[in-house]
Amino acid sequence: MNAALQLSTILERQREAFLRDGPPSLEQRRAALARLTQAVKDSADHIADVISADFGSRSRHESLLAEVLVVCASIRHALRHLPSWMKPKRVPVSFELKPGRGRILYQPVGVVGIISPWNYPFQLSIMPLIGALAAGNRVMLKPSEPGAAHRGVHRRAPRRALSD
User: Fold this and answer.
1) Of 13, 36, 76, 82, which sits 20 to 30 A from 127 (CA to CA)?
2) What is the pTM of this model?
3) How far is CA 111 from the centre of its chain?
């Protein structure tokens, strides 16, 4: 099966699942982010080793610091702020619409596509994933082409955490 057909199939399955299940609750979003945190922590050494091997001379410690630590900090931030991000916001209405009230209800868009660059391959793909999951979306993740070894890391850690 070619790549375009695979992506199309994945997109269709994600759309069907989103329409079937609807937007996830606060608890479901927290659980998904917690599973992602655990998967990243469990795979941290492997992630650093694979990325270091892809770059040839990149320090393993730089990979741990710039890729794994930043991702874990971002997930903690999202978990801490998720309830306020989901809360409806009151907004003013124009004079013509008085005595009406206005509010913004934040809703997921459904399926989000993420194409990551090559320079910080794990961090720059997982950071948008965190935001998309926090917003209640399903995600299609396409890692960059240049580093062959790190693409497996993109498949294993998030897939293991978010297999539902």
Assistant:
1) 13
2) 0.84
3) 11
